Amino acid sequence: MTATTAYDNVANFIAHMDPEKVLELQANEEMQERLDFLIDREKNAVLSPEEKEELNQYILLERLIRLTKAKARYLLSK
């Protein structure tokens, strides 16, 4: 199993739980502020290694959420 397949399986599982709730999922204010801060620091090339790792984790999470929302939209369209 590849990482892509694993993400796909997790996204499918989550999307099937409650597709409508999945579509409502978004970052809370604190998380969004932290993400904006990290992105700004990255643009200015001042991220520490720890901040870079944190930003990478947010990016992976965002990809999983986008994939899950796409699957939820598909389920609701059937």
Provide the succession of SSEs: HHHH
Q: What is the total tally of β strands?
A: 0
**Broad structural category:** mainly alpha
How much of the polypeptide forms β-strand, as a percent range? under 5%
User: Number of DSSP helices?
Assistant: 4
CA-based shape: elongated
**In whole angstroms, how far apart are the ends?**
28 Å
Average per-residue pLDDT, rounded, comes to 94
Q: What percent of residues adopt helix (DSSP H or I)?
A: over 70%
Low-pLDDT ranges: none
Which sheet architecture does the biggest sheet show? none
Radius of gyration: 15 Å
Structure, explained:
By secondary structure, the protein is mainly α. 83% of the residues lie in helices and 0% in strands. The protein contains four helices and no strands. The protein has helices spanning 3-17, 19-24, 29-43, 49-77. Helix 3 (29-43) packs across helix 4. The radius of gyration is 15 Å and the shape is elongated. It starts with a helix and ends with a helix.
Summarize the structure.
This protein has 78 residues and is mostly helical. It is built from four helices and no strands.
